[in-house]
Amino acid sequence: MTEHQEHQEQREQQEQRRIDPANCSMGRALAVVGERWSLLIVREALDGASRFGDFRARLGIASNLLSTRLDGLVEAGVLERVPYREPGDRQRFEYRLTAKGADLRPTVIALLEWGDKYLADEQGPSVVVRHRGAEGDGCGEPVTLVLACAAGHTRLPPGEVQRSPGPGARFLPGG
Which of 20, 34, 56, 117 is the most exposed place for a label (fewest CB within 10 A)? Predict the structure, then answer.
């Protein structure tokens, strides 16, 4: 049996076993950002909002709900709370994306693309994400997400993508 065949056989045996759903990165991620307002706050932070009033005005969200969601995103390490003080005012906080928060950009873009494809008005999407370089030197063309494998294959059709057990997989007993 070749090494490739052995690997394939091991993978098939693992796939027949059920992975414990409690050990799921997607479930854990949704616990942090799966609520509607949380991802909308992240979207606005990605677009430059940082102050409580900015988020409230952009989203039309109630102050108590915004406060709760901001606290949760800070607790999860998606945003960090940074103090500031305007002359004559009390100390307040800005909310800045951490690296963990900035890494949600592809997720936000993926949801936007899905929404544009299936839920946009007849006239089309309300916003278009475009390539803009740090110095404003981007090409200005729309941005799309592309799935790629580690070998560099891109534009993978859905039928060619599958989940398989990772190194941290925990299997249910008797599966």
Answer: 117
CB atoms within 10 A of CB 105: 16
Euclidean distance between CA atoms 85 and 92, whole angstroms: 6
| 73 to 9, 35, 39, 66, 142: CA distances (angstroms) | 42, 11, 10, 11, 29
Contacts of 125 (CB under 8 A, 6+ apart): 112, 115, 116
Sign, CA torsion 138/139/141/143: negative
How many beta carbons lie within 10 A of that of residue 74, not counting itself?
Answer: 16
Tell me the CA distances in angstroms from 74 to 32, 58, 67, 96, one per residue in order.
10, 19, 11, 9
* CA 58, 34, 133, 80 torsion-angle sign: positive
Q: Give per-residue pLDDT as tens, 12-42.
A: 665 568 888 888 899 999 999 999 999 999 9
**What pLDDT, in 10s, does the model give residues 76-104?**
999 999 999 889 989 999 999 999 999 99
